[in-house]
Design brief:
- Helices cover about 40% and strands about 20% of the residues.
- The chain has about 260 residues and is of the alpha/beta class.
- Strand 1 (about 5), helix 1 (about 10-25) and strand 2 form a beta-alpha-beta unit.
């Protein structure tokens, strides 16, 4: 079995990847900004690191067959800097297979965060190390968080004409496990959710599930970024391989809170 390191292994996606690797019988390590908690799985080798300086990464990377890079930042520039740090650490300790999670549309929508992700892809692609990049559509839980924020107002403003194709994070994790334990493929086929809906429709679905009364106000936002979203530059309809629809995810999440 492989030795696989998951950067950001204590985050939402990272935890799902770690669980998937353990189920497959692989030796798993993770890096995190946080120290190991008392509740951490004893089967996982935990490395607390400083992503800004790279401190602790060499020890975490040593002997790893592959690295799944799920650690991220809210800043595209920081994501790019982190990609360079990860590649440098990997190059110092050998030549592990680097697997990077990215987003559908980073090459087509001029959002600063996307530009950083797109530049980070190039860092892995040009590293001289074995690499795989997987782009996915937005996660269910991200769409849910966005809707929760928008619903705080009595009048719920929602970007008009924007379709979304959310995908379940555990399905993304399953694909990353498959890629990390296989041969490098370079640019992997995209992974999208099974259904595409207007964000305004999902807002109404969210309100019904929550039992909340709000007027949904479609707002047509200007600029190249939202033109790209309205044109579906962030969608992957030809790669709609996800199985869990947003309505199913929402019902499960709503049930957990009751």
């Amino acid at each position: 079995m492989s030795v696989v390191l998951v950067t950001g292994g204590s985050g939402t996606l990272g935890r799902a990847v770690v669980r998937g690797l353990l189920r497959e019988g692989h030796q798993v390590r993770l890096t995190s900004r946080r120290p190991r908690p008392a509740t951490a799985d004893p089967a996982v080798e935990w490395h607390a690191v400083d992503y800004a300086t790279g401190e602790g990464l060499d020890a975490a990377f040593a002997g790893a067959d592959s690295v799944v890079h799920t650690a991220t930042s809210v800043s595209g520039k920081r994501d790019l800097a982190l990609a360079n740090t990860i590649v440098s650490a990997a190059a110092r300790v050998g030549a592990p297979h680097l697997v990077y999670i990215s987003i559908v549309g980073v090459d087509r929508i001029p959002l600063p965060y996307y530009r950083g992700k797109f530049a980070a892809e190039a860092v892995f692609r040009e590293s001289g190390l074995p690499w795989t990049v997987l782009r996915t559509t937005q996660f269910h839980d991200l769409v849910l968080r966005v809707l929760g924020v928008l619903a705080k107002s009595p009048l719920m403003p929602v970007p008009a004409g924007v379709p979304v194709q959310p995908v379940e994070v555990t399905e993304v994790a399953e694909r990353l496990v498959e890629l990390a334990t296989g041969a490098p493929v370079g640019a992997a086929p995209d992974l999208g959710g099974p259904e595409t809906h207007l964000l305004t429709d999902l807002a109404r679905l969210y309100l019904r599930a929550q039992g909340r009364r709000r007027w949904v106000l479609p707002v047509r936002l200007p600029g190249e970024v939202f033109t790209g979203y309205r044109n579906g530059a962030h969608l992957a309809p030809e790669y709609a391989h996800g199985k869990v629809a947003f309505a199913e995810f929402l019902a499960e999440e709503t049930g957990k809170k009751r």
